[in-house]
Each structure stands twice: as C-alpha cells, then as structure tokens.
Amino acid sequence: MINFAQPQYLLLIFLIPVFFVCYAIVCRLRKRRIRKFGDEELVSGLMPSASRAKGWVRLVLFSIAFFFFSIGLSRPQIGAKLKEHKTKGAEIMIVLDVSNSMLAEDYSPNRLERAKLAISKLVDRLRDDRIGLIVFAGNSFVQLPITADYVSAKMFLNSITTESVPIQGTAIGDAINTAVRSFSIQSQKSRAVIVITDGENHEDDPVSAARQAAEMGIRVFTIGVGSAEGKPIPVSGGLLKDRDGNIVVSRLDEKTLMEVAKAGNGMYVKAGNSEFGLNPIVDEIDKMDDEQYSSVVFEEFDEQYMYFFALALVFLVMEMLIGERKIRRRLF
User: Fold this and answer.
1) For residues 70 and 82, what is the distance between their CA atoms, to the nearest angstrom?
2) Whole-angstrom Cα distance, residue 93 to residue 113?
3) What is the 3-state secondary structure (H, E, C) of the chain?
4) Disulfide-capable partner of 102 in 82, 112, 235, 285 (CB 3.0 to 4.6 Å)?
C-alpha cells in the first residue's frame, strides 16, 4: 500500500497540461512574428538547422521530470516497519458504577460525571501503564479492553452514561470478577482493580470476589462516591421514587467498600470535590513491581521519495542535452 505523507504536492501534476498549452501559444506567436518578415517558407529556408519537433520533445521530457518531481515532493511511502515494542508498567482496570444512583448530585454536576472527569485526568497522567474500563450496574461488561492507547480510552470514557448497562442494580462482586478475567495473559504480578461506586451493593458478595482476586495477586482498590446523609436521584425531570411513592435517597456505604479494599489487599479512599481519590491510589500502584509488556507495532513507513527525485533528475538531464537544432547527418 502506498501512502503519501504530503499529498498536497500531487496537485502540481495538474500544471503539466498548462505547460503544453502555454508552449503551443508561444509557437503560434512565434509564427506570427515570422510572417511579419516575409513568406514563412522562405524564412524557414534561411534557418535550415531550426527544429520544431525538438521543442516538443524537450517539453515532453521536462513534463515527465516535473511529474516525478511532484510525486517525490509528496513523499510516497510503502509498507510499514514492524517493531517489537517493550514497556514496563502496571495493568489497571477501572470498574465504574453506572447505576442510576450515580446521578445523585453530591458532586457537581453529579457523581458519574465527576468520576469520569477524574478518570480522564488519570489517563493524562499515565505513561507506560496499560488501562482498561469496565462499567457495571445490575451486571457488568468490558467497555474498553486493556490497552496502552490512551486516546481511545478517553473516547470510550466520554460515551459512558447510566444507559450503558440496561439492567439496573449494583453488582460490585460481578464487576470485580469481570475485571479479573479481563487482564492480559502477559500480566502476572502488577495488576490492580479500582472500583468507583457509592457502595450500595444489593446483588452479590463483593468481599468474597475481592478476596479471590487478592489470592491471584490482583489488588483491589475502592473509591467511595457520595455522602453519608445521601442525595435523591434525579430522573426524567423529577426524583426517583420507590413503589410506595417515597423519594429514594442514595447514601454512601463506606463500610462495604472498606471491607472490599481490605479483602483485596488494597486501600479505600473517599472521593472529595478537590481530590477525587485516584491520585493516592495510583501512587500506591506505582510502588508495585513493574511488569514488562511486549507488543508488535507499526513504527514507520519506508520513504520512497529519493527514487522519484532520481528519475526526475535523469529526465531533466536528457531534456538539457537535447539541443534546439536538427542533427546533421553526413554519409561517407
């Protein structure tokens, strides 16, 4: 496959027809000037060595040289070099709660948007670490597989809403198990799960899931989002109510999150408005032994412009060597 690094220079090729039109006009004007001196055939007889055909030949050679020169300026590249890229770092799985309770406005504008902003800042801070993203509510799924592509990570992050998981609830244990299964095969010792939630678990046993992760060498960290007094959940222009018509208030369950972090050999941090809690957790992850990862990447294309410049030079020299006079042949 041919790639052009600077394709705008290919537009110069459209000047070639202009060369022929301009030369035809010059030849026509020259004939008019000759006619002013007298009969055209008589004047041509006075210049027996002048060659009209050679002018067109030189123009063709110059146009070919200009064609190759324009392609050379556009920097054609073919193929790509494959190179094994090795890095050292940790694998971090962000597990984000997207249940309706994350719409509570303990933070500005709400818990979910504040969490997404903190994760985005975390991605900007990463260098050689790899990151993955899991969203959960009543069940969980991988939003972004483990990767070092931070641009894609931020794109997937921006698309997350409370509608990302259709089944409502808060299954923290299932989300932790999904994270454990989502680490790469290469990673063995430097793996961490960061759970961001209000902690109101009603579905399974997250403490047991965190303990199993710790036995596999995976540390589980938790960030509590919300407040002890709680906030109502805004939905569809109103507030979420239960079956009895009472307003549902979402409160932070710090006790559960502390137990999950303890069982997962991690740490618990309560999210604040200024410091969300990711930075101290990442500082703790940085103390872990770095894992070496290798991947095959496309490093760069092979440049081909020099060959086109060489062809342009060959045709330009040929154009210069061809004179404007006819070749005189003598027979002996």
Assistant:
1) 29
2) 18
3) CEEECCHHHHHHHHHHHHHHHHHHHHHHHHHHHHHHHCCHHHHHHHCCCECHHHHHHHHHHHHHHHHHHHHHHCCEEECCCEEEEEEEECEEEEEEECCHHHHCCCCCCCHHHHHHHHHHHHHHHCCCCEEEEEEECCCEEEEEEEECCHHHHHHHHHCCCCCCCCCCCCCHHHHHHHHHHCCCCCCCCCEEEEEEECCCCCCCCHHHHHHHHHHCCEEEEEEECCCCCCEECEECCEECECCCCCECEECCCHHHHHHHHHHCCCCEEECCCCCCCHHHHHHHHHCCCCEEEEEEEECCCEECHHHHHHHHHHHHHHHHHCCCECCCCCCC
4) 112
Work out the widest C-alpha separation in the chain, in whole angstroms.
121
Copy the structure tokens of residue 182. Answer: 């989502």
Q: Is the pLDDT of residue 269 over 80?
A: yes
Nearest Cα residue to 264 out of 163, 152, 180: 180
**pLDDT (tens digit per residue) in 276-312:** 888 899 889 888 877 666 655 555 677 888 999 999 9
| pLDDT of residue 324 exceeding 70 | no
Closest CA to 130 of 182, 198, 77: 182
Residue where the block lists tokens 């770092």: 89
Spatial separation of the C-alpha atoms in residues 70 and 22, rounded to whole Å: 19
